[in-house]
């Protein structure tokens, strides 16, 4: 289990591979909103700031996100940038949480701050919450549903994934209720476990809407 969880931080056996993803860089017309959002969401700290660039980190790295300030008037291009993300290029960055409890308590904390996911879906291999930062950059907060890389690979090769590679939407507050009630956390990682009684979740291609795309 630890091998899978630590896969992003261990030295890869493949000699051609870099050791890990260090940071990403965003040209932004709303720097202050971005700083505030990452402070709230990841507990980010500003490690450097000058007129043009800001470096943020939220863990052991010297910076995880660099913001390059561009003229504020460019924020009017925001709808175009959002549209572009929906149809072309990088769709999202995924960050890992070590447990379902960490994922769901993060959801609860952010909901209290008025920050809500655009999509909550159990993909099969992962239980995932998608958020968008003030620039519309999409981040997937995920927890692995299987304990090992091998078990996940077997799921990719199986019938369930072939029949529904997108997954089943879930209600994060309901799933957290179940966790706090003492339901088995492993059981809660199954697609459908987060379906509040009396509701019908969107599943498969029906879960892809203009909002979730
Ligand atoms: Fe993803």
From TrEMBL:
One of its GO terms (molecular function) is dioxygenase activity. The keyword Oxidoreductase applies. The lineage of its organism: Bacteria, Bacillati, Actinomycetota, Actinomycetes, Pseudonocardiales. It comes from Actinokineospora bangkokensis. This is Biphenyl 2,3-dioxygenase. It comes from the Bacteria. Residues 185-208 are annotated as: Disordered. Residues 190-202 have a biased composition (Low complexity). PROSITE patterns: VOC. InterPro entries: Glyas_Bleomycin-R_OHBP_Dase, Glyas_Fos-R_dOase_dom, VOC_core. Residues 20-144 form the VOC domain. Keywords: Dioxygenase, Oxidoreductase.
